[in-house]
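stuck on whats below:

***
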Amino acid sequence: MKRKKIALIGGGQIGGVLAQLAAIRQLGDVVLYDIVQDLPQGKTLDIAEASRIDGFDASVTGTNDYSDIQDSDIVIVSAGLPRKPGMSRDDLLVTNAKIMQTVAENVKKYAPNSIVIIISNPLDAMVTLFQKISGFSHNRVIGQAGVLDSSRFATFISWELGVSVKDVNAMVLGGHGDTMVPLTRYANVNGIPVLEMLERKYKDAAKAAEVMTAMVERTKMAGGEVVKLLKTGSAFYSPASAAIQMAEAIVYDEKRLLPVCAYLQGEFGVNGYYVGVPVVLGEGGAERIVEVTLNAEEQELLNNSVSAVKGLVEDMERLGL
């Protein structure tokens, strides 16, 4: 059977890890594109030279020519610049929107039947822009954010409760930013509500709520926490792993229910915007959005997050993007 072809746009820190993970998990033949001469070639050569050790035989190549992504099945986009000191949100939007426009035009030209996963920030705006420029159906253009944010939330819960993170189920909805919505009521450890376990641990409902709130806030600021510690960059291992989980669900038609930045058409009371929600991922991309019942407080938080996403989209339109 012919292998799938995985194109990675952006050869930075995330792109390099994406290439390594895609190869090790043998999702398909990997092509890593970057505008910087020799950078993707060097990274993929390094990865390929570990193929005997890591036990994969998929092709891993680097390129500076978009035509090499021809007929890719999956495209993962991490191209773009991180926000730097002194740079406004408008500055970041303009800079990365120009990059995304070029990416979208070339993916449309060379991989018109691909399913596209966007990692680039500001995430919700970049997914919206890619879909607009490419004209791809909404189910074939999705964003990675919720998988990462949910994993961060689950990690903090596992540390707090002293249980395996494998048994923690947690989900984060909304935009990828300070207004994201970790669903505390639905968080559980193999079915046991996290809040219940916290109350038993502290024997105090107020203290349990305080600890949960602290974990929620840490989840919202997790990306910034990594940036502060690294000093010269941002997270790259975890965003890459999250995107690969999404790609794996698509390649193997797993029907995984994952929090994905997807286009809403009335779900959760939102129409016409890309927002992080529970999505069934399979060979068709975002095959189905699953609505969960939200209480008044949760719906208000989600509405607030959607408003932030709308603000980003309006900023793009105001800037002529």
Remarks:
- The mean pLDDT is 95.
- The two ends are 42 Å apart (CA to CA).
- The longest strand covers residues 271-282.
